[in-house]
Design a protein that fits this description.
Elements (H helix, E strand, L loop, with lengths): L1 H13 L3 H21 L4 H20 L3 H21 L1 H13 L1 H30 L3 E5 L6 H4 L3 E6 L2 H7 L10 E5 L2 E7 L15 H12 L3 E5 L6 E5 L2 E3 L4 H11 L2 H19 L1
Parallel strand pairs: 1-3
Antiparallel strand pairs: 1-5, 2-4, 3-4, 5-6, 6-7
Helix pairs in contact: 3-4, 6-8, 6-10, 6-11
């Protein structure tokens, strides 16, 4: 069996040419845009499962497991029609986007969405500082924080200044814990963070600062802290605490987190492309 696999791979490599490279590239591009179009719809989970079935079908067929291969082929043939029926609304919207150029529009609006998100976080932090309201805002990066979110109350709400201010309002049910943000969503509030055991932390810093440092030591997240005693805004990142953050430094930090400069560069390129299309 393994000799057959080796011979088949050897034959494929020997006959690999430019057409095969082009064929693979086209498939990769099509799959990428399919995933991008369905990434925020309920279809994505079904597509993932369908993809697993296709891979298993190829493996069983390659290994000569005829019965299982036949079963998978039957599921794929029937499943394609079922997918079209189930996700007809999503497919229609995707085709409309392609036909009307809404993919470009969506990329162009991404910059404004991120900019608005940053403005709302900054406005809330400045409000907390002015009113000396304690706040602890964790912004997730590449390291997942699902275990942290399990300790709090799940929200999955859009970021708004009003919601953040209500969550940290003194004596509110969730004001003592941390808010966890992923992208443009407040995923959870009232979360408990691991406390740092760093003995170099100043005696004037409270539990919020120790918690912010603790989560920054075990993840690549960025945490914004507002002291309820002094109103001072601080940032914890990579196990380090930066204090006395003003609005400009806070904006610079959030701009880096959300890759705003990269999104802005993409926006400019798309604007140029749009102007060329109109000519």
């Amino acid at each position: 069996m393994f000799e057959g696999i080796f011979n088949s791979l050897k034959h494929s490599v020997e006959n690999f040419n430019v057409v095969d490279i082009l064929d693979i590239a086209v498939v990769v591009v099509l799959v990428y845009f399919l995933l991008k179009l369905t990434s925020k719809t309920r279809a994505i989970q079904v597509l993932k499962g369908f993809g697993v079935i296709i891979i298993l079908a190829q493996i069983t067929d390659f290994l000569g497991m005829s019965t299982i291969a036949w079963l998978f082929d039957y599921i794929i043939n029937a499943g394609a029609l079922v997918l079209i029926v189930l996700f007809q609304p999503e497919l229609r919207r995707a085709l409309e986007r392609i036909g009307t150029g809404n993919i470009l529009d969506r990329n162009l609006s991404e910059y404004n969405e991120i900019l608005t998100r940053i403005d709302k976080i900054i406005a809330s932090c400045l409000y907390f500082s002015k009113t000396r309201t304690g706040a602890l805002i964790v912004i997730e990066n590449k390291t997942g924080l699902n275990d942290i979110m399990e300790t709090g109350t799940k929200l999955n709400s859009d970021i708004t200044s009003e919601l953040l201010e209500n969550l940290f309002f003194p004596n509110a049910p969730l004001h003592d814990g941390a808010v966890v943000i992923r992208g443009g969503k407040i995923l959870a509030a009232g979360c408990f963070l691991p406390l740092s055991d760093n003995r170099l932390i100043g005696q004037d810093l409270g539990t919020r600062h120790r918690a912010a440092l603790g989560i920054s030591e075990v993840s690549d997240s960025v945490t914004i802290i507002v002291s309820e005693e002094t109103g001072v805004i601080s940032i914890a990142k990579d196990g380090k605490l930066i204090r006395y953050i003003d609005s400009k430094a806070l904006r610079d930090t959030l701009t880096a987190i959300y890759n705003l400069e990269e999104v802005n560069a993409k926006r400019r390129r798309l604007n140029i492309l749009r102007r060329r299309r109109k000519r």
